[in-house]
């Protein structure tokens, strides 16, 4: 079974969310920032911060001129702050080596700091309208269900080829198809409660097969009490400080488990998110 492009695109034309990074005036740099922010983070949390970033750093060179600490503070609580550091590094490379522009070629995009397979293709597709497969968890789920009649398994090297085979031949149509496929997975063909009654596709192999359950046992990610939460608390202290702070300030930010706090602090240092001064104080990257 394939996916009816006409039905999918008709639905998308009528119901697509009015997201700011989809606006005609959004540049490739703006779209790149949105793609980095949206990784494992919902739209409702990303949009206000993205708008602030576009106003503050409209081109890569503007971000490159800011410090790592400024970018980390502006990242706020989006989570996974290493993404912010990598984007700052990417901005510097774009400003110095690519004329302050985001390249359109997938291979060149892949050579940039912090740009992986998904992000490179997303920028090529959504910013430059190229006919390239863009595969995230939403797309994988729609393709697995609608085409193969099953829940998605673990990510595979086949995913790109299978998705590319579904793309319409006309390039502009293919790029919009990719966006529509992702939208369908995000809003209708969701992981836990798919709303099949709202699905625009006239046929779905998964529905025809009786909606078989997934054979993959997925771990539920928790946050409360994790090293990740501890890291966030320590970063909060440094983001709120005007300069380096004493170790005791960090100790008070996470008192439930000193060993876990020490691990979190060490990992922040290793990741380059924070640094220690010669006199033993701690600061955000670039402020030590």
Automatic annotation (TrEMBL):
- A Pfam family it matches: HhH-GPD
> Is DNA damage a UniProt keyword of this protein?
yes
- Manganese listed as a keyword: no
Residues forming the HhH-GPD domain are 37-187
> SMART domains per the record?
ENDO3c
Q: What does the similarity note say?
A: Belongs to the Nth/MutY family.
Instruction: Kindly provide the name given to this protein in its UniProt entry.
Output: A/G-specific adenine glycosylase
